[in-house]
Amino acid sequence: MNIASKNKPLIVICAPTACGKTSCAEALFAQDSSSSFAGIAEVISADSMQVYRGFNIGTAKPDKALLEKLPHHLIDICEMRGSFGAGDFVRKTLEAAADIYSRKKLPVIVGGTGFYIRNFIYGLPPTPQADSLLRGQIEARMKKEGAQKLWDELENLDPASAHKIHIHDEYRIKRALEVCTASGKPLSSFSVEPVPREGFSFLILSLQRSRAELYERIDKRVDLMFEQGLADEVRSLVSSGCCAEDSAMQAIGYREFFTADGRLNEDIQAVKERIKKDSRAYAKRQQTFFKAFTDAIPLNADDIEGCEKKITEFLAGAENTLDSYAKFGHNI
Questions:
Q1: How far is CA 268 from CA 181, 227, 230, 259, 275, in A?
Q2: Exposed site from 45, 77, 246, 315, fewest CB < 10 Å?
Q3: Which residues contact 150 (CB under 8 A, 6 or more apart)?
């Protein structure tokens, strides 16, 4: 691969939760797969929760066997009580991509955190200059009232922005509220026509399933998570010092374990049903969000052959001129 070329190839596989993103990437790029692209790529995880150490079952984090045959980046890079936002994702993804290219491999972003993916591909729109006093006030409110309350407030002021920001992305919630308060205009009103990031040539594959099928898969995944010990994982995290106010604990699959006063809910069946409900609502928002990716190619999540075809066309394109990829070689 000519990594000195102006536009380096980068593939994005995006889809709602439980759609089958990881299994698709495994079928395409794992070293033991039957795909023509076996062994040529490494994954950059675009999952805002898999960055946190200790949050494993509820995030559907890839297991050791998969990591050995398909290396992943941006997994377990953040302390369990830390914070990680879109800006961190962009910076870390640029670093990971450079590392992958240096070993003559192909970076493939795989995930469902659409806000992260969008910011990496298109960047952030221009917004009003930060107001340190106002930012401090909102920061104090975040600590006292929690992300959920501020997100609800943002939804009233700027629903378009709120539905693009995940509940555990405290930085973006605070910034959106700051813009609304300082300018009197919603953050979404500052959007500009997206322009892809320079230096890359993107292939965006948007995996599709019917909503009914997706909801069924979500329910089965949540049941499996509880069989695997999700409740015990949450108790262990709490014993290690985590609490309901932590960024990671406010994610779907974890926040439902807490009552309004921050205690653990002992009604496990009620917790499970709440996780299913919240996950289905989140998947619906993800489907809407990814529809706005006008450059994305929609493909059935089980259509591995169709994915291979699009990747072949992309890597053999005139702009990339990557003969080694087109020949599906491993010494790239």
A1: 40, 12, 10, 12, 10
A2: 77
A3: 138, 141, 142, 173, 174, 177
Torsion angle of the four alpha carbons 293, 294, 300, 302, in this order, in degrees rounded to the nearest 10: -50
Per-residue pLDDT band at 125 (split at 50, 70, 90): low
Give every CB contact of residue 251 below 8 A, 6+ residues apart in sequence.
Answer: 48, 49, 55, 58, 59, 166, 167, 168
CA distance 221 to 287: 18
- Largest Cα separation within the chain, whole Å, is 60
CB neighbour list of residue 124: distance below 8 Å, 6 or more residues apart: 86
Percent of the chain whose pLDDT exceeds 90:
72
Assess contact for 10 and 202: CB atoms under 8 A: yes
**pTM, full prediction:** 0.79
Residues 6+ apart with CB under 8 A from 216: none
- Number of other CB atoms surrounding residue 130 within 10 Å: 11
The vertex-166 CA angle with 70 and 197, nearest 5°, equals: 60
Q: In terms of DSSP bridges, do strands 297-300 and 41-45 run parallel, antiparallel, or are they unpaired?
A: unpaired
- CB atoms closer than 10 angstroms to residue 136: 10
